[in-house]
Design a protein that fits this description.
199 residues; mainly alpha; 7 helices
């Protein structure tokens, strides 16, 4: 378990770095959008390349931050139902959700996107718009986003199992007052998911 938690920490650190870095893409996209609008109004000029660059930047920010959103547990869930269960049941829901839904979906998307990106790259596919950009980088961003999401899914599965076994502390131990806490509690002094675990 120690080695797996070490892998989880490495994945989390990578996800954290990428997730925080891509926030700057939003600023760049806003500046490109504003610049394109000013040039169009002031000089009666427009560029499909700059317009598509905005789409690339927004798409990259969305896809490359998906893994970070998963790490922060900020993806949408039906909390009205989820919050009524005990913390142990919540962990089981998360674990089975990752194993049965998240991982099969992202692996299926990766398998589909690899030939999709390769074909676009080999053919030199470009936008159908006049003066548009090449398309394979946008498709590669889709692939990269799902790869990052797959790795973060593995990290979340490792952490859920460790928490349920009492190896590490639950980083979010809140449970509604009507839901009994029936998860095995780790002994005092046990590390969190981002701390070293000694054999």
């Amino acid at each position: 378990m120690t080695a797996l938690l070490g892998l989880s920490r490495l994945i989390d650190a990578t996800t954290e770095f990428i997730g925080k870095s891509v926030t700057w893409l939003i600023l760049v996209a806003v500046l490109v959008s504003a610049g394109n609008a000013v040039i169009r109004k002031a000089f009666n000029m427009s560029s499909n390349a700059w317009l598509e660059a905005q789409w690339y930047l927004f798409g990259a920010a969305f896809m490359l931050a998906a893994a970070y959103t998963l790490k922060q547990n900020e993806h949408i869930r039906i909390d009205v139902v989820y919050g009524n269960f005990s913390r142990r049941v919540q962990h089981w829901i998360d674990l089975l959700g990752h194993l049965l839904f998240l991982m099969p979906f992202v692996l299926m998307m990766i398998a589909y996107l690899i030939p999709y990106v390769r074909m676009s790259y080999v053919s030199g596919e470009v936008s159908s718009s006049a003066g548009g950009l090449i398309l394979w980088p946008a498709k590669a961003i889709l692939l990269a986003g799902f790869v990052l999401l797959a790795f973060q899914g593995v990290s979340e599965i490792i952490k859920k199992i460790a928490i349920m076994r009492g190896v590490i502390d639950d980083p979010a131990p809140y449970v509604p007052t009507h839901a009994p806490l029936d998860i095995a509690q780790p002994h005092a002094g046990l590390p969190h998911a981002d701390q070293e675990v000694r054999p």
